[in-house]
């Protein structure tokens, strides 16, 4: 148990709970329930005010800023009494309205209390600074504690998931969602670290050829720096944005100890490898490799300590404020070591990564009056060839005159300058994507220990909803994913709840929360939806981005409520169509969508890579040789109809993810971005309100308060809580439902706190916690009685031993006294002298 007076705990509590003095001060403020209210405000969304007068439908108020305003009666929202200010769980608010929820979050964030409960899930606002609330002492503070016993924290949600898994023998999932820049990745790391600490198996793994022994928990935590280096980048909204989605499953054995892990990744943003917006960066690894951390890698990879010299990584920013790329590179390299990567694997990996930088610098020119390009200097191509373990001449030839199939014959087709540059871009993206996929597979091999697995907790961290000035194919895929996840949340929280009530026959008025996202999802994924039309255009000869947009207009414009035509804005990027998502309307630009979705690469160069001397590269492109072999064997070119597009692959992966999630008990963490300027302590009320509405936070609180979120089947309830009313259940057979009703009546619970269904008993939020406290008290009483009886039995045994000792002592004393009186008796003295002579006479 952690000492609450420990300096580290005391320091952490400043950022987790209000000090009792401040609570008293806050709650003793003057308050007039009849006058205090919230009124709309153009800057703050809502502002505190006092009602001065009311006339018909208009109310005159005086705001906290001293202004007098007249507002409509319907626009006024009730204010909660001071005892509810800065409350831990917004579901406990007396008046549950938009203004009160916003005020609670705003007041807590102003005091750096970033975690707030919201019914059954947790809201976290990005602090944009490091807080001392994640150390080992804080982990121990939350381990095995009920949510109501400790201040709001991600650790409390994590521990609930862990306890549920062990108690209910059911897989769990934690969905950490929110917009880009809201802090999902950081919170995901904290969750994984928590499980690694509380469920550590404790056994060391001996890596072959390694001096250190590493635990599985170390390796699970070390997967993060590796994936971040290769999968995260600086964007306009987030300095460490995950440009891919990941679902990390941590497996546990029968006793709850960690027994392995695996990672599934979704939708790496490949276009970033060769192009970045002005305020953004390429993936972190490129800048880490160019840093001063490991000069020996510069020599091996033929690179310099200056990323600005490499076109593919220098189109946007080169540095991030407050981030030292050299230090990050050291952490990445250390993580590779912990994960058991050999030095050869690391060198080959960095060679393949660096080759992309050189590829981007290669120069080409157009031959006059010919549809044929040629090299404008071969130095960069030679560097690429050296790093990738292929012949430079073969690489250049493969780029300038790739071998393509025409009919049943192969011919070498000349390429113009633009085609060569596009081919290099596609190859660079392919190398990087395959590196990333291999990295994940390689990490999974390390984390796949031979231990018995029984349950898992899945942690989902996926790119948040994105609305940029320029929204392309990647944004559609990300936003489509978020639509599906939001629907899963709505379905779990609202629809399933109400269906369950109906099925169980409990009294309940159906509530329509108006959050059905199916229309938007259908627009994207159904037959003749956006993705279907895109996939169809990818196999239609001579189809272009223009014909794709025309087909969208023909099928959806004016026919589908979620589809629209954007209004041209001055100085804004050209957009081709609008989709009305749950988080707002997004204008998409369809430029290069067909090319991005087909994602073709130069097969001649791919086959060259497959035969490379670089051991890693030959593995990455092994499928190119297999495809060529299959093509030769069949005598046919791989047909367009069998081509697996990016959108089709993503849909498959997403369906698999949703099926995985449906088999778990989900826990939702809602991450909120407080402002657009990446500054801690500043809260943009309108931005936060938009996210609260889109994330379903407000609706979640409402259903949690009106509904019955906790439930148990009767037999389980009887078994667990019969201890509360042993006399309420008569001897002999009594069915579980009747027993449950008797127990609840005996406990004198208010009837509104529970409902008895046909197979289960349902409770309002917090009621089960009360029953658990009552059960703990009853158990404490029984255990105290049992302890008393055991102690009594032990003392009786001790007393019996003491009596026996006393009796033995009395016998000894009596014998000693008799001997003392005997030794002075004359006849005894004579006997002792004569006895030796008698012995001699006998001999």
TrEMBL record:
GO terms for cellular component: cytoplasm; membrane; myosin complex. The keyword Secreted does not apply. It holds the Pfam family Myosin_head. Residues 32-81 form the Myosin N-terminal SH3-like domain. GO terms for biological process: actin filament organization. ATP binds at residues 178-185. Keywords: Actin-binding, ATP-binding, Coiled coil, Motor protein, Myosin, Nucleotide-binding. Residues 654-676 are annotated as: Actin-binding. Residues 85-776 form the Myosin motor domain. GO terms for molecular function: actin filament binding; ATP binding; microfilament motor activity. SUPFAM superfamilies: P-loop containing nucleoside triphosphate hydrolases. Belongs to the TRAFAC class myosin-kinesin ATPase superfamily. Myosin family. This is Myosin heavy chain. It comes from Rotaria sordida. The lineage of its organism: Eukaryota, Metazoa, Spiralia, Gnathifera, Rotifera.
């Amino acid at each position: 148990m952690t000492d609450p007076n420990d300096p580290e705990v005391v320091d952490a509590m400043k950022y987790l709970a209000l000090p009792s003095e401040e609570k008293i001060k806050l709650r003793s403020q003057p308050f007039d329930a009849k006058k205090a209210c919230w009124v709309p405000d153009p800057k703050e969304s809502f502002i505190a005010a006092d009602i001065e007068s009311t006339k018909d439908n208009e109310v005159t108020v005086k705001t906290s800023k001293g202004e007098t305003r007249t507002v409509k009666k319907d626009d006024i929202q009730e204010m909660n009494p001071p005892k509810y200010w800065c409350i831990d769980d917004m579901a406990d608010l007396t008046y549950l309205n938009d203004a009160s929820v916003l005020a609670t979050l705003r007041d807590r964030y102003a005091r750096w209390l970033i975690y707030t409960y919201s019914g059954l899930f947790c809201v976290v606002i990005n602090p944009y600074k490091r807080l001392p609330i994640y150390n080992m002492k804080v982990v121990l503070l939350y381990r095995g504690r009920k949510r109501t016993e400790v201040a709001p924290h991600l650790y409390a949600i994590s521990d609930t998931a862990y306890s549920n898994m062990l108690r209910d023998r059911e897989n769990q999932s934690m969905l950490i969602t929110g917009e880009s820049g809201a802090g999902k990745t950081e919170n995901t790391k904290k969750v994984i670290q928590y499980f690694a600490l509380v469920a550590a198996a404790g056994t060391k793994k001996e890596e072959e050829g390694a001096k250190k022994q590493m635990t599985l928990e170390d390796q699970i935590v070390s997967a993060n720096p590796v994936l971040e280096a290769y999968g995260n980048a600086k964007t306009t909204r987030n300095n460490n944005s995950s440009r891919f989605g990941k679902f990390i499953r941590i497996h546990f054995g029968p006793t709850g100890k960690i027994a392995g892990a695996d990672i599934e990744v979704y939708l790496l943003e490949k276009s970033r490898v060769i192009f970045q917006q002005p305020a953004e960066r390429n993936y972190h690894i490129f800048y880490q490799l160019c840093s001063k951390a490991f000069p020996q890698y510069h020599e091996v990879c033929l690179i310099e300590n200056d990323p600005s010299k490499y076109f593919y990584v220098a189109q946007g920013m080169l540095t991030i404020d407050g981030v030292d790329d050299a230090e990050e590179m050291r952490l990445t390299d250390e993580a590779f070591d912990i994960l058991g990567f050999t030095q050869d694997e690391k060198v080959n990996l960095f060679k393949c990564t660096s080759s992309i930088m050189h590829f981007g610098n290669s120069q080409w020119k157009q031959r006059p009056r010919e549809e044929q390009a040629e090299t404008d200097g071969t130095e960069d191509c030679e560097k690429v060839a050296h790093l990738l373990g292929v012949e430079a001449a073969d690489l250049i030839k493969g780029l300038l005159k790739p071998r393509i199939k025409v009919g049943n014959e192969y011919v070498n087709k000349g390429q113009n300058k633009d085609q060569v540059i596009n081919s290099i871009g596609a190859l660079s993206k392919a190398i990087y994507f395959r590196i990333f996929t291999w990295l994940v597979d390689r990490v999974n091999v390390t984390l796949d220990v031979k231990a018995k697995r029984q349950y898992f907790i899945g942690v989902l961290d996926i790119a948040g909803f994105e609305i940029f000035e320029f929204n392309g194919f990647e944004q559609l895929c990300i936003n489509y994913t978020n639509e599906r996840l939001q629907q899963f949340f709505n379905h779990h929280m609202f629809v399933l709840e109400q269906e369950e009530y109906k099925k169980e026959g409990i009294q309940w008025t159906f509530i329509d929360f108006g959050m059905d996202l199916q229309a938007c999802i259908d627009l994207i994924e159904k037959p003749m939806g956006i993705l279907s039309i895109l996939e169809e255009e990818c196999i239609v000869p001579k189809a272009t981005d223009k014909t794709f947009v025309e087909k969208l207009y023909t099928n959806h414009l004016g026919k589908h409520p979620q589809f629209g035509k954007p209004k041209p804005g001055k100085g804004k990027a050209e957009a081709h169509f609008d989709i009305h998502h749950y988080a707002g309307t997004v204008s998409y630009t369809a430029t290069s969508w067909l090319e991005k979705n087909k994602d073709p690469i130069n097969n001649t160069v791919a086959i060259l890579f497959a035969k490379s001397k670089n051991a890693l590269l030959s593995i990455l492109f092994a499928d190119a040789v297999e495809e060529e072999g299959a093509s030769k064997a069949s005598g046919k070119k791989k047909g367009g109809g069998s081509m697996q597009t990016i959108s089709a692959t993503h849909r498959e992966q997403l369906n698999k993810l949703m099926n995985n999630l449906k088999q778990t008990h989900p826990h939702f963490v809602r991450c909120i971005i407080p402002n657009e300027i990446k500054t801690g302590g500043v809260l943009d009320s309108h931005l936060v309100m938009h996210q609260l509405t889109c994330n379903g936070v407000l609706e979640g609180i409402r259903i949690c308060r009106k509904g019955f979120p906790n439930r148990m089947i009767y037999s389980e309830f009887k078994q667990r809580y019969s201890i509360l009313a042993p006399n309420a259940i008569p001897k002999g057979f009594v069915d579980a439902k009747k027993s449950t009703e008797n127990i609840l009546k005996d406990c004198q619970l208010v009837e509104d706190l529970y409902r008895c269904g046909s197979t289960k008993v349902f409770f309002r939020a917090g009621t089960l916690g009360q029953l658990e406290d009552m059960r703990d008290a009853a158990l404490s009483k029984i255990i105290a009685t049992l302890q008393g009886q055991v102690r009594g039995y032990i003392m009786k045994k001790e007393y019996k031993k003491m009596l026996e000792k006393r009796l033995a002592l009395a016998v000894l004393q009596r014998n000693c006294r008799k001997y003392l009186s005997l030794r002075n008796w004359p006849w005894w003295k004579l006997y002792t002298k004569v006895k030796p002579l008698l012995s001699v006479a006998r001999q």
